[in-house]
Protein backbone atom coordinates (compact mmCIF):
# COMPACT_ATOMS: atom_id res chain seq x y z
CA UNK A 1 0.00 0.00 0.00
CA UNK A 2 1.30 3.46 -0.82
CA UNK A 3 0.16 6.78 0.56
CA UNK A 4 -1.92 8.96 -1.76
CA UNK A 5 -0.44 12.26 -0.56
CA UNK A 6 1.75 13.40 2.34
CA UNK A 7 -1.15 15.07 4.21
CA UNK A 8 -3.37 12.00 3.89
CA UNK A 9 -0.83 9.28 4.61
CA UNK A 10 -2.26 8.62 8.06
CA UNK A 11 -5.85 8.44 6.79
CA UNK A 12 -5.81 6.84 3.36
CA UNK A 13 -3.79 4.27 1.43
CA UNK A 14 -3.95 3.09 -2.16
CA UNK A 15 -3.86 -0.66 -2.74
CA UNK A 16 -0.88 -1.82 -4.76
CA UNK A 17 -3.00 -4.63 -6.20
CA UNK A 18 -6.22 -2.98 -7.39
CA UNK A 19 -5.44 0.73 -6.81
CA UNK A 20 -8.50 1.14 -4.57
CA UNK A 21 -8.38 4.08 -2.16
CA UNK A 22 -8.76 2.61 1.32
CA UNK A 23 -9.44 4.18 4.71
CA UNK A 24 -6.33 3.46 6.77
CA UNK A 25 -8.14 2.45 9.96
CA UNK A 26 -10.35 0.05 8.02
CA UNK A 27 -7.28 -1.42 6.36
CA UNK A 28 -5.54 -1.89 9.71
CA UNK A 29 -8.62 -3.61 11.15
CA UNK A 30 -8.41 -5.98 8.17
CA UNK A 31 -4.76 -6.79 9.06
CA UNK A 32 -3.45 -4.70 6.15
CA UNK A 33 -5.20 -6.90 3.61
CA UNK A 34 -7.16 -5.07 0.92
CA UNK A 35 -10.89 -5.80 1.41
CA UNK A 36 -11.47 -5.26 -2.31
CA UNK A 37 -8.90 -7.59 -3.92
CA UNK A 38 -7.23 -9.45 -1.05
CA UNK A 39 -3.76 -7.93 -1.64
CA UNK A 40 -1.57 -8.60 1.41
CA UNK A 41 0.51 -5.50 2.15
CA UNK A 42 3.95 -6.01 3.63
CA UNK A 43 4.14 -5.73 7.40
CA UNK A 44 6.93 -4.47 9.59
CA UNK A 45 8.15 -6.83 12.30
CA UNK A 46 6.45 -4.98 15.21
CA UNK A 47 3.02 -5.12 13.52
CA UNK A 48 3.53 -8.78 12.58
CA UNK A 49 4.24 -9.64 16.22
CA UNK A 50 1.14 -7.75 17.39
CA UNK A 51 -0.99 -9.80 15.01
CA UNK A 52 0.43 -13.19 16.00
CA UNK A 53 1.07 -13.31 19.74
CA UNK A 54 -1.23 -13.31 22.75
CA UNK A 55 -1.76 -9.82 24.20
CA UNK A 56 0.61 -9.07 27.07
CA UNK A 57 2.83 -12.10 26.41
CA UNK A 58 5.51 -10.49 24.25
CA UNK A 59 8.99 -10.20 25.74
CA UNK A 60 11.60 -8.81 23.37
CA UNK A 61 15.03 -10.43 23.37
CA UNK A 62 18.15 -8.24 23.43
CA UNK A 63 19.04 -6.85 20.02
CA UNK A 64 22.06 -4.66 20.67
CA UNK A 65 25.26 -6.08 19.25
CA UNK A 66 28.73 -4.60 18.76
CA UNK A 67 29.00 -2.38 15.72
CA UNK A 68 30.83 -4.20 12.94
CA UNK A 69 31.78 -3.25 9.41
CA UNK A 70 34.05 -6.24 8.75
CA UNK A 71 34.96 -5.29 5.17
CA UNK A 72 35.05 -1.48 5.48
CA UNK A 73 32.59 -1.69 2.59
CA UNK A 74 31.87 1.42 0.53
CA UNK A 75 29.74 1.64 -2.62
CA UNK A 76 28.08 4.98 -3.28
CA UNK A 77 27.71 5.22 0.52
CA UNK A 78 29.76 3.75 3.36
CA UNK A 79 28.03 0.74 4.90
CA UNK A 80 27.73 2.38 8.37
CA UNK A 81 25.77 5.24 6.78
CA UNK A 82 23.34 2.75 5.26
CA UNK A 83 22.88 1.11 8.67
CA UNK A 84 22.23 4.46 10.33
CA UNK A 85 19.65 5.33 7.69
CA UNK A 86 17.87 2.00 8.12
CA UNK A 87 17.76 2.40 11.89
CA UNK A 88 16.41 5.91 11.62
CA UNK A 89 13.70 5.01 9.12
CA UNK A 90 12.49 1.83 10.84
CA UNK A 91 13.20 2.43 14.52
CA UNK A 92 14.80 -1.03 14.65
CA UNK A 93 18.32 -1.98 15.68
CA UNK A 94 18.59 -4.59 12.93
CA UNK A 95 16.60 -6.43 10.27
CA UNK A 96 15.03 -8.94 12.65
CA UNK A 97 13.07 -8.70 15.89
CA UNK A 98 13.30 -11.67 18.27
CA UNK A 99 11.06 -12.34 21.24
CA UNK A 100 9.45 -14.89 23.51
CA UNK A 101 5.68 -14.99 23.68
CA UNK A 102 2.70 -17.27 23.70
CA UNK A 103 0.45 -18.01 20.72
CA UNK A 104 -2.89 -19.42 21.82
CA UNK A 105 -1.30 -20.13 25.21
CA UNK A 106 1.60 -22.08 23.72
CA UNK A 107 5.06 -20.71 24.55
CA UNK A 108 7.23 -19.94 21.53
CA UNK A 109 10.34 -18.06 20.53
CA UNK A 110 9.90 -15.88 17.46
CA UNK A 111 12.32 -14.28 15.01
CA UNK A 112 10.53 -11.91 12.65
CA UNK A 113 12.43 -10.33 9.77
CA UNK A 114 11.65 -6.82 8.54
CA UNK A 115 12.08 -6.08 4.83
CA UNK A 116 12.17 -2.34 5.49
CA UNK A 117 15.63 -2.73 7.05
CA UNK A 118 18.07 -2.99 4.10
CA UNK A 119 15.71 -5.34 2.30
CA UNK A 120 15.66 -7.76 5.24
CA UNK A 121 19.18 -8.79 4.26
CA UNK A 122 20.95 -11.52 6.20
CA UNK A 123 24.09 -10.11 7.76
CA UNK A 124 26.19 -11.17 10.72
CA UNK A 125 24.00 -9.36 13.25
CA UNK A 126 20.77 -10.81 11.84
CA UNK A 127 22.32 -14.29 11.79
CA UNK A 128 23.52 -13.87 15.36
CA UNK A 129 20.13 -12.70 16.62
CA UNK A 130 18.22 -15.53 14.92
CA UNK A 131 20.76 -18.07 16.17
CA UNK A 132 20.39 -16.73 19.70
CA UNK A 133 16.63 -17.03 19.36
CA UNK A 134 17.00 -20.66 18.29
CA UNK A 135 19.33 -21.31 21.22
CA UNK A 136 16.80 -19.70 23.55
CA UNK A 137 14.14 -22.06 22.18
CA UNK A 138 16.49 -24.97 22.81
CA UNK A 139 17.17 -23.84 26.38
CA UNK A 140 13.47 -23.30 27.07
CA UNK A 141 12.39 -26.39 25.10
CA UNK A 142 9.81 -24.46 23.15
CA UNK A 143 8.94 -24.16 19.48
CA UNK A 144 10.73 -21.70 17.21
CA UNK A 145 8.66 -19.65 14.74
CA UNK A 146 10.52 -17.77 12.00
CA UNK A 147 8.79 -15.15 9.87
CA UNK A 148 10.94 -14.42 6.83
CA UNK A 149 11.04 -11.36 4.59
CA UNK A 150 14.34 -10.91 2.83
CA UNK A 151 16.05 -10.21 -0.46
CA UNK A 152 18.93 -12.49 0.54
CA UNK A 153 22.37 -12.19 2.09
CA UNK A 154 23.85 -8.77 2.91
CA UNK A 155 26.39 -7.93 0.22
CA UNK A 156 28.16 -5.35 2.35
CA UNK A 157 29.40 -8.14 4.65
CA UNK A 158 30.66 -10.39 1.87
CA UNK A 159 31.40 -14.04 2.61
CA UNK A 160 30.74 -13.49 6.31
CA UNK A 161 27.07 -12.95 5.49
CA UNK A 162 27.14 -16.19 3.49
CA UNK A 163 28.36 -18.02 6.60
CA UNK A 164 25.16 -17.05 8.43
CA UNK A 165 23.24 -19.53 6.29
CA UNK A 166 25.22 -22.32 7.92
CA UNK A 167 25.24 -20.76 11.39
CA UNK A 168 21.45 -20.46 11.59
CA UNK A 169 20.90 -23.83 9.89
CA UNK A 170 22.95 -25.67 12.48
CA UNK A 171 20.91 -23.99 15.21
CA UNK A 172 17.81 -25.36 13.46
CA UNK A 173 19.49 -28.78 13.36
CA UNK A 174 20.01 -28.68 17.13
CA UNK A 175 16.29 -28.05 17.65
CA UNK A 176 15.45 -30.90 15.29
CA UNK A 177 17.70 -33.25 17.26
CA UNK A 178 16.01 -32.19 20.49
CA UNK A 179 12.55 -32.96 19.07
CA UNK A 180 11.43 -29.32 19.17
CA UNK A 181 9.18 -27.89 16.49
CA UNK A 182 10.49 -25.32 14.02
CA UNK A 183 8.11 -23.41 11.75
CA UNK A 184 8.87 -20.85 9.09
CA UNK A 185 6.28 -18.48 7.72
CA UNK A 186 7.29 -17.20 4.28
CA UNK A 187 6.14 -13.66 3.60
CA UNK A 188 6.72 -11.43 0.62
CA UNK A 189 9.49 -11.56 -0.45
CA UNK A 190 11.84 -14.36 0.68
CA UNK A 191 14.81 -14.89 -1.62
CA UNK A 192 18.47 -15.80 -1.84
CA UNK A 193 20.41 -17.03 1.16
CA UNK A 194 17.42 -16.89 3.50
CA UNK A 195 15.29 -19.01 1.16
CA UNK A 196 18.19 -21.43 0.69
CA UNK A 197 18.73 -22.02 4.39
CA UNK A 198 16.55 -21.56 7.46
CA UNK A 199 13.40 -20.45 5.62
CA UNK A 200 13.06 -23.89 4.04
CA UNK A 201 14.84 -26.30 6.38
CA UNK A 202 12.36 -26.07 9.25
CA UNK A 203 9.91 -28.85 10.11
CA UNK A 204 6.98 -26.94 8.67
CA UNK A 205 6.96 -24.27 5.96
CA UNK A 206 3.89 -22.05 5.67
CA UNK A 207 3.48 -19.38 3.00
CA UNK A 208 1.33 -16.35 3.57
CA UNK A 209 -1.02 -15.67 0.68
CA UNK A 210 0.71 -13.49 -1.88
CA UNK A 211 4.22 -14.34 -0.70
CA UNK A 212 6.98 -14.99 -3.22
CA UNK A 213 9.94 -17.26 -2.53
CA UNK A 214 12.86 -18.53 -4.56
CA UNK A 215 16.60 -18.85 -4.71
CA UNK A 216 17.04 -16.34 -7.55
CA UNK A 217 14.76 -13.38 -8.08
CA UNK A 218 12.62 -13.01 -11.22
CA UNK A 219 14.74 -10.15 -12.60
CA UNK A 220 17.93 -12.19 -12.30
CA UNK A 221 16.33 -15.23 -13.93
CA UNK A 222 15.03 -13.18 -16.85
CA UNK A 223 18.43 -11.57 -17.37
CA UNK A 224 20.31 -14.87 -17.30
CA UNK A 225 17.90 -17.09 -19.22
CA UNK A 226 16.30 -14.54 -21.52
CA UNK A 227 12.99 -16.33 -20.97
CA UNK A 228 9.58 -15.01 -20.04
CA UNK A 229 8.47 -16.38 -16.69
CA UNK A 230 5.31 -18.45 -16.19
CA UNK A 231 2.22 -16.79 -14.80
CA UNK A 232 2.35 -16.72 -11.01
CA UNK A 233 6.01 -17.80 -10.96
CA UNK A 234 7.44 -18.20 -7.41
CA UNK A 235 4.17 -17.16 -5.76
CA UNK A 236 2.73 -19.01 -2.78
CA UNK A 237 0.35 -20.99 -4.98
CA UNK A 238 3.23 -21.88 -7.34
CA UNK A 239 5.23 -23.13 -4.34
CA UNK A 240 2.29 -25.22 -3.15
CA UNK A 241 1.78 -26.80 -6.57
CA UNK A 242 5.45 -27.73 -6.76
CA UNK A 243 5.51 -29.29 -3.31
CA UNK A 244 7.75 -26.69 -1.66
CA UNK A 245 5.48 -25.54 1.18
CA UNK A 246 3.09 -27.30 3.52
CA UNK A 247 0.26 -24.83 3.09
CA UNK A 248 -0.75 -21.38 1.90
CA UNK A 249 -2.51 -19.35 4.57
CA UNK A 250 -4.50 -16.12 4.44
CA UNK A 251 -3.22 -13.57 6.96
CA UNK A 252 -6.48 -13.62 8.89
CA UNK A 253 -6.08 -17.39 9.38
CA UNK A 254 -2.35 -17.45 10.12
CA UNK A 255 -2.53 -17.10 13.88
CA UNK A 256 -5.22 -19.78 14.15
CA UNK A 257 -3.25 -22.17 11.98
CA UNK A 258 -0.15 -21.67 14.13
CA UNK A 259 -2.18 -22.32 17.29
CA UNK A 260 -3.47 -25.60 15.84
CA UNK A 261 0.02 -26.73 14.79
CA UNK A 262 1.58 -25.84 18.12
CA UNK A 263 -1.18 -27.68 19.98
CA UNK A 264 -0.82 -30.79 17.84
CA UNK A 265 2.94 -31.02 18.20
CA UNK A 266 2.85 -30.51 21.96
CA UNK A 267 0.23 -33.21 22.47
CA UNK A 268 1.56 -36.08 24.54
CA UNK A 269 4.77 -34.32 25.48
CA UNK A 270 4.91 -33.49 29.18
CA UNK A 271 5.72 -29.91 29.97
CA UNK A 272 9.11 -29.34 31.50
CA UNK A 273 9.06 -27.40 34.78
CA UNK A 274 10.08 -23.81 34.35
CA UNK A 275 13.60 -23.09 35.49
CA UNK A 276 14.80 -19.51 35.90
CA UNK A 277 17.32 -18.68 33.21
CA UNK A 278 20.80 -17.74 34.23
CA UNK A 279 22.12 -16.14 31.05
CA UNK A 280 25.85 -16.35 31.80
CA UNK A 281 25.58 -20.09 32.46
CA UNK A 282 23.91 -21.01 29.18
CA UNK A 283 25.74 -22.92 26.51
CA UNK A 284 25.52 -19.91 24.23
CA UNK A 285 27.58 -17.65 26.46
CA UNK A 286 30.06 -20.40 27.21
CA UNK A 287 30.65 -20.71 23.50
CA UNK A 288 30.94 -16.96 23.11
CA UNK A 289 33.62 -16.95 25.77
CA UNK A 290 35.70 -19.23 23.57
CA UNK A 291 36.32 -16.27 21.24
CA UNK A 292 37.11 -16.45 17.58
CA UNK A 293 38.94 -19.34 16.03
CA UNK A 294 42.67 -18.76 16.02
CA UNK A 295 44.06 -17.70 12.68
CA UNK A 296 47.49 -19.26 12.21
CA UNK A 297 49.59 -17.84 9.40
CA UNK A 298 50.81 -20.47 6.97
CA UNK A 299 54.44 -21.19 7.72
CA UNK A 300 57.09 -22.55 5.41
CA UNK A 301 56.84 -26.30 5.47
CA UNK A 302 53.10 -26.32 6.09
CA UNK A 303 51.06 -28.31 3.61
CA UNK A 304 49.65 -25.79 1.24
CA UNK A 305 52.01 -23.05 2.34
CA UNK A 306 54.31 -21.49 -0.25
CA UNK A 307 57.24 -23.65 -1.18
CA UNK A 308 60.85 -22.61 -0.95
CA UNK A 309 61.26 -19.18 -2.45
CA UNK A 310 57.51 -18.78 -3.03
CA UNK A 311 55.29 -16.13 -1.50
CA UNK A 312 51.61 -15.52 -2.00
CA UNK A 313 51.34 -13.06 -4.88
CA UNK A 314 49.64 -9.77 -4.11
CA UNK A 315 47.05 -9.33 -6.86
CA UNK A 316 44.23 -6.92 -7.38
CA UNK A 317 40.91 -8.56 -6.45
CA UNK A 318 39.50 -8.14 -9.97
CA UNK A 319 42.58 -9.76 -11.46
CA UNK A 320 42.04 -12.66 -9.08
CA UNK A 321 38.41 -12.98 -10.19
CA UNK A 322 39.56 -13.22 -13.80
CA UNK A 323 42.19 -15.77 -12.82
CA UNK A 324 39.61 -17.91 -10.98
CA UNK A 325 37.45 -17.91 -14.12
CA UNK A 326 40.26 -18.77 -16.53
CA UNK A 327 39.04 -21.54 -18.88
CA UNK A 328 42.31 -23.44 -18.48
CA UNK A 329 42.04 -23.64 -14.71
CA UNK A 330 42.01 -27.28 -13.49
CA UNK A 331 38.53 -28.68 -12.91
CA UNK A 332 37.23 -31.27 -10.47
CA UNK A 333 37.70 -34.05 -13.02
CA UNK A 334 41.28 -32.87 -13.59
CA UNK A 335 41.99 -33.09 -9.85
CA UNK A 336 40.29 -36.47 -9.62
CA UNK A 337 42.77 -37.69 -12.20
CA UNK A 338 45.87 -36.02 -10.71
CA UNK A 339 45.30 -35.80 -6.93
CA UNK A 340 43.21 -38.92 -6.30
CA UNK A 341 43.45 -42.53 -7.45
CA UNK A 342 40.88 -45.07 -8.61
CA UNK A 343 37.92 -42.69 -8.93
CA UNK A 344 34.61 -44.48 -9.48
CA UNK A 345 31.87 -42.03 -10.44
CA UNK A 346 28.37 -42.42 -9.00
CA UNK A 347 25.42 -40.90 -10.80
CA UNK A 348 21.89 -39.72 -10.09
CA UNK A 349 19.79 -38.18 -7.34
CA UNK A 350 17.46 -41.26 -7.20
CA UNK A 351 14.54 -38.94 -7.91
CA UNK A 352 14.78 -38.88 -11.68
CA UNK A 353 17.79 -36.82 -12.77
CA UNK A 354 21.58 -36.72 -12.95
CA UNK A 355 22.96 -33.19 -12.96
CA UNK A 356 26.21 -32.93 -14.99
CA UNK A 357 27.38 -29.88 -13.02
CA UNK A 358 28.08 -32.10 -10.00
CA UNK A 359 30.39 -35.08 -10.16
CA UNK A 360 31.05 -37.43 -7.29
CA UNK A 361 32.09 -40.87 -6.29
CA UNK A 362 34.56 -43.00 -4.38
CA UNK A 363 38.31 -42.47 -4.77
CA UNK A 364 41.55 -43.04 -2.89
CA UNK A 365 43.79 -40.39 -1.39
CA UNK A 366 47.20 -41.83 -0.45
CA UNK A 367 45.55 -45.25 -0.11
CA UNK A 368 42.61 -44.04 1.99
CA UNK A 369 39.12 -44.27 0.53
CA UNK A 370 37.20 -41.02 0.46
CA UNK A 371 34.00 -39.69 -1.11
CA UNK A 372 34.83 -36.83 -3.48
CA UNK A 373 32.10 -34.43 -4.65
CA UNK A 374 32.69 -31.35 -6.76
CA UNK A 375 31.42 -28.87 -9.29
CA UNK A 376 32.47 -29.55 -12.86
CA UNK A 377 32.82 -26.74 -15.41
CA UNK A 378 35.01 -27.70 -18.36
CA UNK A 379 37.63 -26.04 -20.55
CA UNK A 380 35.92 -25.62 -23.93
CA UNK A 381 32.69 -23.87 -24.75
CA UNK A 382 31.03 -27.20 -25.52
CA UNK A 383 32.11 -28.65 -22.17
CA UNK A 384 30.97 -25.57 -20.28
CA UNK A 385 27.55 -25.65 -21.91
CA UNK A 386 27.18 -29.40 -21.33
CA UNK A 387 28.04 -28.92 -17.64
CA UNK A 388 25.88 -25.79 -17.29
CA UNK A 389 29.04 -23.83 -16.41
CA UNK A 390 29.25 -25.68 -13.10
CA UNK A 391 25.89 -24.35 -11.90
CA UNK A 392 24.13 -27.20 -10.13
CA UNK A 393 20.43 -27.88 -10.45
CA UNK A 394 18.36 -29.15 -7.51
CA UNK A 395 19.10 -32.64 -8.84
CA UNK A 396 22.81 -31.89 -8.53
CA UNK A 397 22.48 -30.79 -4.94
CA UNK A 398 20.36 -33.85 -4.15
CA UNK A 399 22.93 -36.09 -5.82
CA UNK A 400 25.60 -34.52 -3.61
CA UNK A 401 23.34 -35.02 -0.60
CA UNK A 402 22.87 -38.70 -1.44
CA UNK A 403 26.62 -39.20 -1.69
CA UNK A 404 27.29 -37.37 1.57
CA UNK A 405 24.82 -39.58 3.41
CA UNK A 406 26.26 -42.67 1.76
CA UNK A 407 29.74 -41.62 2.90
CA UNK A 408 28.48 -41.28 6.47
CA UNK A 409 26.96 -44.76 6.38
CA UNK A 410 30.17 -46.24 4.99
CA UNK A 411 32.42 -44.29 7.34
CA UNK A 412 34.20 -42.46 4.50
CA UNK A 413 35.56 -38.91 4.81
CA UNK A 414 34.04 -36.40 2.40
CA UNK A 415 36.20 -34.12 0.25
CA UNK A 416 34.41 -31.41 -1.74
CA UNK A 417 35.89 -29.32 -4.56
CA UNK A 418 34.02 -26.05 -5.05
CA UNK A 419 34.11 -24.21 -8.37
CA UNK A 420 30.83 -22.60 -9.39
CA UNK A 421 29.57 -19.10 -10.22
CA UNK A 422 26.45 -20.07 -8.25
CA UNK A 423 23.51 -22.43 -8.30
CA UNK A 424 21.39 -22.79 -11.45
CA UNK A 425 19.02 -19.78 -11.53
CA UNK A 426 16.68 -21.18 -14.21
CA UNK A 427 12.92 -21.54 -14.20
CA UNK A 428 13.01 -25.33 -13.96
CA UNK A 429 15.44 -25.12 -11.02
CA UNK A 430 12.97 -22.95 -9.15
CA UNK A 431 10.11 -25.31 -10.00
CA UNK A 432 12.13 -28.21 -8.59
CA UNK A 433 12.94 -26.47 -5.31
CA UNK A 434 16.44 -25.03 -5.70
CA UNK A 435 16.36 -23.12 -2.42
CA UNK A 436 15.15 -26.11 -0.41
CA UNK A 437 17.74 -28.39 -2.03
CA UNK A 438 20.59 -26.08 -1.02
CA UNK A 439 19.13 -25.63 2.45
CA UNK A 440 18.95 -29.38 3.00
CA UNK A 441 22.59 -29.81 2.00
CA UNK A 442 23.70 -27.13 4.43
CA UNK A 443 21.62 -28.64 7.22
CA UNK A 444 22.90 -32.15 6.56
CA UNK A 445 26.54 -31.09 6.46
CA UNK A 446 26.23 -29.47 9.88
CA UNK A 447 25.43 -32.88 11.40
CA UNK A 448 27.28 -35.31 9.11
CA UNK A 449 29.16 -37.73 11.41
CA UNK A 450 32.23 -38.09 9.21
CA UNK A 451 35.14 -35.76 8.42
CA UNK A 452 34.35 -33.10 5.79
CA UNK A 453 37.11 -31.20 4.01
CA UNK A 454 36.21 -28.50 1.45
CA UNK A 455 38.46 -26.79 -1.09
CA UNK A 456 37.53 -23.65 -3.02
CA UNK A 457 39.42 -24.37 -6.25
CA UNK A 458 38.08 -21.63 -8.53
CA UNK A 459 34.87 -19.64 -8.11
CA UNK A 460 32.99 -19.99 -4.86
CA UNK A 461 29.68 -18.37 -5.72
CA UNK A 462 27.06 -17.77 -3.03
CA UNK A 463 24.74 -20.53 -1.77
CA UNK A 464 25.69 -22.83 -4.62
CA UNK A 465 29.21 -22.93 -3.16
CA UNK A 466 28.15 -23.13 0.48
CA UNK A 467 26.02 -26.19 -0.33
CA UNK A 468 29.33 -28.11 -0.57
CA UNK A 469 31.43 -26.05 1.85
CA UNK A 470 30.07 -26.52 5.37
CA UNK A 471 33.14 -28.42 6.48
CA UNK A 472 35.50 -29.15 9.35
CA UNK A 473 38.30 -27.46 7.40
CA UNK A 474 37.92 -25.11 4.45
CA UNK A 475 40.93 -24.68 2.16
CA UNK A 476 41.24 -22.24 -0.71
CA UNK A 477 43.59 -22.11 -3.65
CA UNK A 478 45.58 -18.90 -3.87
CA UNK A 479 43.84 -17.57 -7.00
CA UNK A 480 40.33 -18.71 -6.12
CA UNK A 481 37.52 -16.42 -4.98
CA UNK A 482 34.64 -16.96 -2.56
CA UNK A 483 31.80 -14.47 -2.28
CA UNK A 484 28.19 -13.88 -1.37
CA UNK A 485 27.54 -12.44 -4.85
CA UNK A 486 29.46 -11.93 -8.08
CA UNK A 487 31.21 -8.56 -8.46
CA UNK A 488 29.04 -7.85 -11.50
CA UNK A 489 25.87 -8.56 -9.54
CA UNK A 490 27.01 -6.45 -6.61
CA UNK A 491 27.91 -3.56 -8.90
CA UNK A 492 24.54 -3.73 -10.66
CA UNK A 493 22.74 -3.39 -7.33
CA UNK A 494 24.89 -1.01 -5.30
CA UNK A 495 26.67 1.04 -7.97
CA UNK A 496 25.20 3.01 -10.88
CA UNK A 497 26.18 0.34 -13.42
CA UNK A 498 27.95 -2.98 -13.89
CA UNK A 499 31.18 -1.27 -14.99
CA UNK A 500 31.99 -0.91 -11.28
CA UNK A 501 32.59 -4.68 -11.02
CA UNK A 502 36.34 -4.27 -10.32
CA UNK A 503 35.55 -1.83 -7.52
CA UNK A 504 32.92 -4.22 -6.14
CA UNK A 505 35.43 -7.08 -6.22
CA UNK A 506 37.79 -5.10 -4.01
CA UNK A 507 35.00 -4.11 -1.62
CA UNK A 508 33.72 -7.69 -1.22
CA UNK A 509 37.06 -8.99 0.17
CA UNK A 510 36.63 -12.20 -1.81
CA UNK A 511 40.27 -13.26 -2.25
CA UNK A 512 41.96 -16.06 -0.33
CA UNK A 513 44.22 -13.82 1.81
CA UNK A 514 41.22 -11.64 2.78
CA UNK A 515 39.08 -14.63 3.69
CA UNK A 516 41.92 -16.21 5.65
CA UNK A 517 42.18 -13.05 7.73
CA UNK A 518 38.41 -13.09 8.29
CA UNK A 519 38.51 -16.74 9.37
CA UNK A 520 36.20 -17.92 6.58
CA UNK A 521 38.91 -20.23 5.24
CA UNK A 522 41.44 -22.09 7.34
CA UNK A 523 44.33 -22.39 4.93
CA UNK A 524 45.45 -20.93 1.63
CA UNK A 525 47.04 -23.42 -0.78
CA UNK A 526 49.67 -21.62 -2.82
CA UNK A 527 49.75 -21.97 -6.59
CA UNK A 528 52.83 -21.97 -8.82
CA UNK A 529 54.30 -18.52 -9.39
CA UNK A 530 52.16 -17.94 -12.48
CA UNK A 531 48.86 -19.73 -11.81
CA UNK A 532 47.28 -23.18 -11.51
CA UNK A 533 46.46 -23.40 -15.22
CA UNK A 534 50.10 -22.82 -16.18
CA UNK A 535 51.40 -25.72 -14.06
CA UNK A 536 48.54 -28.12 -13.24
CA UNK A 537 50.91 -30.89 -12.11
CA UNK A 538 52.58 -28.73 -9.45
CA UNK A 539 49.19 -27.39 -8.34
CA UNK A 540 47.91 -30.95 -7.94
CA UNK A 541 51.01 -31.86 -5.90
CA UNK A 542 50.44 -28.96 -3.52
CA UNK A 543 46.73 -29.64 -3.21
CA UNK A 544 47.34 -33.33 -2.44
CA UNK A 545 49.79 -32.40 0.31
CA UNK A 546 47.35 -29.89 1.80
CA UNK A 547 44.46 -32.38 1.72
CA UNK A 548 46.48 -35.03 3.54
CA UNK A 549 47.82 -32.60 6.14
CA UNK A 550 44.29 -31.44 6.98
CA UNK A 551 42.44 -34.74 6.63
CA UNK A 552 44.67 -37.07 8.64
CA UNK A 553 44.12 -35.30 12.01
CA UNK A 554 40.35 -35.37 11.45
CA UNK A 555 40.34 -39.16 11.09
CA UNK A 556 41.18 -39.54 14.79
CA UNK A 557 38.36 -37.29 16.03
CA UNK A 558 35.24 -39.14 17.31
CA UNK A 559 32.11 -38.42 15.20
CA UNK A 560 30.26 -36.61 17.98
CA UNK A 561 33.26 -34.36 18.56
CA UNK A 562 33.58 -33.69 14.82
CA UNK A 563 30.01 -32.45 14.66
CA UNK A 564 30.40 -30.34 17.79
CA UNK A 565 33.60 -28.69 16.56
CA UNK A 566 32.12 -28.10 13.09
CA UNK A 567 29.18 -26.36 14.67
CA UNK A 568 31.46 -24.25 16.82
CA UNK A 569 33.43 -23.28 13.75
CA UNK A 570 30.38 -21.77 12.06
CA UNK A 571 28.87 -20.45 15.28
CA UNK A 572 31.88 -18.17 15.56
CA UNK A 573 30.69 -16.18 12.56
CA UNK A 574 28.19 -14.31 14.74
CA UNK A 575 28.34 -10.55 15.11
CA UNK A 576 30.36 -10.62 18.35
CA UNK A 577 33.13 -12.62 16.68
CA UNK A 578 33.06 -10.56 13.50
CA UNK A 579 33.96 -7.47 15.48
CA UNK A 580 37.00 -9.29 16.84
CA UNK A 581 38.06 -10.43 13.38
CA UNK A 582 37.70 -6.95 11.96
CA UNK A 583 40.72 -6.03 14.00
CA UNK A 584 42.82 -8.51 11.99
CA UNK A 585 42.84 -6.22 8.94
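Q: What amino acid sequence fits the structure above?
A:
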Amino acid sequence: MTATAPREEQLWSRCAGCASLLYRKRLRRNLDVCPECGEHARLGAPERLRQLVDPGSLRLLPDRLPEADPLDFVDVLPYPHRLTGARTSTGLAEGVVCATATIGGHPVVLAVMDFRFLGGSLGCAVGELITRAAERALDDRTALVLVTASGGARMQEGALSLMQMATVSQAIAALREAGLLTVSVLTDPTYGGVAASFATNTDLVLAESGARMGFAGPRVIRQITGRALPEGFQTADFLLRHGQVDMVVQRRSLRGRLVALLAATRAGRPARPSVPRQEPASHRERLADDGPAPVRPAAEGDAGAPGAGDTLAVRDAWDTVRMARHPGRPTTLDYLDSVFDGFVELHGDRLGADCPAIVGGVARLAGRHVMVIGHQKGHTTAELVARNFGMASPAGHRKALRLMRLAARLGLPVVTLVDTPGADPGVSAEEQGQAAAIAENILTLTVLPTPVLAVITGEGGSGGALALAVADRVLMLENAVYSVISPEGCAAILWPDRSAAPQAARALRLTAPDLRRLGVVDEVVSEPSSAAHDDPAETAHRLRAALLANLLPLLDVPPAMLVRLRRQRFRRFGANRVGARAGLR
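Q: And what stands out in the fold?
A: Residues 158-177 form the longest helix (20 residues).
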